[in-house]
Amino acid sequence: MELRQTSIPGCCELLPDRFRDDRGSFVKTFHHGLFTELGLNTDWREEYYSVSHPRVLRGLHFQLPPHDHEKLVYCSAGGVLDVVLDLRRDSPSYGRHELFELNAERANLLYLPKGVAHGFYVTDGPATMLYKVATVYAPAHDTGIRWDSAGIPWPDADPVISQRDRSFAPLAEFVSPFTMGGAR
Ligand SMILES: Cc1cn([C@H]2C[C@H](O)[C@@H](COP(=O)(O)OP(=O)(O)O[C@H]3O[C@@H](C)C(=O)[C@@H](O)[C@H]3O)O2)c(=O)[nH]c1=O
């Protein structure tokens, strides 16, 4: 598994080996020893997945302290344009985002540190997105930033999106509790 640093400190893209044979392919997405060596979280508390139709946009989501968490995310079927937005006030990339193409063919994964928002748009649907998260779901702390308020060049001006995602505050109004060293 190869690790590629991104423009967002602590956020990396992981490129696993893909083994192919007559039956199909095989990809390992988590290895405790390797993640430990790379300094990544290994203590995952929940795992879940979603399936989304073409043109669906989910995000930009995160959990507030003290339930903020690292996240490992990948796309096992279809493809998405994935976005990570840095919300850590003292980060060199605060308020900035990076885009990633996650898809079943590339089998790439994203590792997200605490203090970033995450979202995606389905470019090749249906798309299955899988997650591991380092704290359990805390509905009262699960929130987001409005998808169209952070200067992200989404490929669709009118995506399929939930009412909840439409109702999030814009980035400019969000008072961030996140810093690089943790929440304050
Ligand atoms: C995230 C989550 C949702 N739910 C419930 C709440 C709701 O009824 C239903 C769907 O929730 P949502 O609309 O938040 O699902 P979704 O928009 O897919 O949420 C996900 O979005 C992407 C961008 C992420 O980064 C994920 O961490 C997660 O926040 O599932 C849980 O029970 N546990 C969970 O951990």
Automatic annotation (TrEMBL):
Site feature (Participates in a stacking interaction with the thymidine ring of dTDP-4-oxo-6-deoxyglucose) residues: 137
Any Gene Ontology biological process: dTDP-rhamnose biosynthetic process
Coiled-coil region list: none
Active site: 61 (proton acceptor), 131 (proton donor)
One Gene Ontology MF term: dTDP-4-dehydrorhamnose 3,5-epimerase activity
Record-linked Gene3D superfamilies: Jelly Rolls
CDD domains: cupin_RmlC (cd00438)
Domain of life: Bacteria
EC number: 5.1.3.13
InterPro entries: RmlC-like (IPR000888), RmlC-like_jellyroll (IPR014710), RmlC_Cupin_sf (IPR011051)
The reaction(s) this protein catalyses: dTDP-4-dehydro-6-deoxy-alpha-D-glucose = dTDP-4-dehydro-beta-L-rhamnose
Pfam families given in the database record: dTDP_sugar_isom
Gene Ontology CC entries for this record: cytosol
Function noted in UniProt: Catalyzes the epimerization of the C3' and C5'positions of dTDP-6-deoxy-D-xylo-4-hexulose, forming dTDP-6-deoxy-L-lyxo-4-hexulose.
Xref: PANTHER family: DTDP-6-DEOXY-D-GLUCOSE-3,5 EPIMERASE, THYMIDINE DIPHOSPHO-4-KETO-RHAMNOSE 3,5-EPIMERASE
Protein name: dTDP-4-dehydrorhamnose 3,5-epimerase
Source species: Geomesophilobacter sediminis
Phylogenetic lineage: Bacteria, Pseudomonadati, Thermodesulfobacteriota, Desulfuromonadia, Geobacterales
